[in-house]
Amino acid sequence: MAGNPEPLSARAKLAVTAGRAAAAVSRAAGRGSGSVIGGKVALRLDPDLLAEVAHHLDIVLVSATNGKTTTTRLIAEALRANGGVVSNALGANMPAGITSALAGGSEAQYGVIEVDEKYLATVARDVTPKAIALLNLSRDQLDRAAETRMLAERWREGLSGSKAVIIANADDPLVVWAASSSPNVVWVAAGQEWKDDAWSCPACGGVMQRPGDDWFCGECGFRRPTPSWALSGDEVLDPHGSAWPIKLQLPGRANKANAATSAAVAAAFGVPPQTALERMHAVTAVAGRYDVVTFQEREVRLLLAKNPAGWLETFSLIDAPPAPVILSVNARGADGTDTSWLWDVDYSKLAGHPICVIGDRKLDLAVRLEVAGVDFQVCDNAVAAVRACPPGRIEAIANYTAFQDLRRVVGN
Amino acid sequence: MSDRGLRVVWVYPDLLSTYGDQGNALVVERRAQQRGLAVQRTDVRSDEQVPTSADIYLIGGGEDRPQRLAAERLLRDGGLQRAVDNGAIIFSVCAGYQILGREFVNDLGEPQKGLGLLDVVSTRGEAERCVGDVLGDVDERLGLPQLTGFENHQGITHIGSGARPLARVRLGKGNGTGDGTEGAWNDTVFGTYMHGPVLARNPQIADMLIKLALDVNALPPVDDQWYEALRKERIAAALQPA
Ligand SMILES: [Zn+2]
Questions:
Q1: Domain A292-410 CATH (choose: 3.40.50.10540, 3.90.190.20, 3.20.20.70, 1.10.3720.10)
Q2: Numbered residues of the known binding site of A for Zn(2+)
């Protein structure tokens, strides 16, 4: 496994140095951390740099449509029980950002890396991971993302020759399809509330049957594998059938699922479930997500939901009515410019909550809520929306750039 | 009219429900209910029979392989053709629009037989995907306000003599043929490339479908303030792209 890190080649050292210089310039110019620009410069000077900076590390890759940033944090926390960890904790999850993050980890034993879904196969080829965690796949950014099933197909092809142990969600048929080309898979029953991207069998196109928690294709026999790990309420069941309590500070079923997967990953590196789960308790907000901020004498909980599957999981974790809810949606480049997905979110689940609507696309939301038959008010901005809510806790749910806007306003 | 109710079928959500087009079913349902109609909505999966006696059938957009499967299964089923013979109204979007035509090019790059309910033939575009806000003028025979929608497709659809363009685009690609047409329709069958979903952006089209299905000339008014505000914003956005 890890140990004596081999020194980087002269070319790699030069590339890392040039990348750091570019990052420093970018920071000085006020353009964020500079990790992506630094990585880009470094990768241009040495295209093999990602492989070189990963070489001395035991690498874990984490990919999914939802939950990859949080799960990366949970796994990193668990593995620190055994040794130093380097991670792209801020979510720069394409090759340049990953290279930059790993280049800073010369002392670490583990590299725990979140990877954008579209780059998983490439990155997996470059860094020779020991483990790959696959959480879920669902529709996201309709205007430019590859088809969801095609993504699963690319994962499947890219991972078929990998020696990594794949830790994969047995409850998502697309993930199972992607992972089952690999010889070494640990299945986790992590659940998946969203089902509308997998009614059609990824193997043969037949109609999927989904009785209860089970699923199978009636035509070709593709079916849910038997999991060795499972999320069961507030506990993780390990392969021996022992139950370990989850005591996360992060809310929601989806994060318990992330913890279950993370425990299975940690076990693959010899960290016992109890130790792993106890360490995960230390994780609070992840890049501002789930943070509770005092603003205008109210407690605003910041929740990020970028796509229908994410909104569905988020609705299940918010406080019951009459807790007020602020919804904010933008459609800028990073969000995807097509807002049609709002109609795949079941907003009637918010009935009974006072609802305030903001964001660039508040009128799309207004029509959506009008058709859902729930009461709402449209507000000019976040401050007006918070003031329109009674004192106490407010659940604020926003998509990507709307979430960043909200963080700036409430001072998070 | 309220004694009869309205039967709405959402066709093959397991295959053709990728781009939020189920919003079209939700809008029809809501606007009919607001007029005091009892709405019976049925979602029909591709392993179920398509009922032949409903009033309005809605078909959405989907990805390439599901489109091929949906066309095969609908052709085998035959229910939609019989429904049209029974006087049903069909409103289709994107992949669903192509399926209703005489022929389209499938994910394998082969021409595939459609249902032949609309006199159109579709091919695949070589150019970049058409993505963005669209503004158009609806066929004057339909007496509807401007069309606003969001397009996100690569198809090209040619209209034959048995159908008319649903609209002429001022901004956007529409049918992708370069002649400014968008969508197609005959007496009872409608097709469009517009997502958005299109009936949320154009509630007057939803009302038109309800009126056609009930064979009435007018519906009681409903409060359209948010629809109108959204339309105004999106029309302005199409005129002034960022
Ligand atoms: Zn199958």
A1: 3.90.190.20
A2: 201, 204, 217, 220
Q: What is the mean pLDDT of residues B90-95?
A: 97
Report domain extents, chain A.
10-280, 292-410
The verdict on a CB contact (< 8 Å) between A367 and B197 is: no
- φ/ψ of B23, rounded to 5, equals -55, -30
> Which homologous superfamily does the CATH classification assign to the domain defined by A10-280?
Mur-like, catalytic domain (3.40.1190.10)
- The pTM of the full predicted model, rounded to 2 decimals, is 0.92
DSSP A133-190: EE-------TTTSPPHHHHHHHHHHHHTT--SEEEEETT-HHHHHHHTTSS-EEEEE-
Alpha carbon distance A228, A237 (integer Å): 8
The ipTM is: 0.97
Q: How far, in Å, CA of A165 to CA of A151, rounded? A: 20
The region of weakest confidence among A166-175, A267-276, B11-20 is B11-20
Instruction: Tell me whether residues A340 and B150 touch, CB distance under 8 A.
Output: yes
Instruction: Show residues of chain A in contact with B20, CB under 8 Å.
Output: 142, 338-344
Q: Which residues of A touch B (CB under 8 A)?
A: 139, 142-144, 147-150, 196-197, 199-200, 205-208, 218, 337-344, 363-364, 366-368, 370-373, 378
| Residue B87: closest CA among B172, B188, B229, B225 | B188
So what's the pLDDT on residue A295?
A: 96
Residue A74 has pLDDT above 90, yes or no: yes
- pLDDT score of A30: 54
For the cut 90, the answer to whether the pLDDT of residue A47 exceeds it is no
Q: Give residue A340 CA to ligand 1 midpoint distance, Å.
A: 29
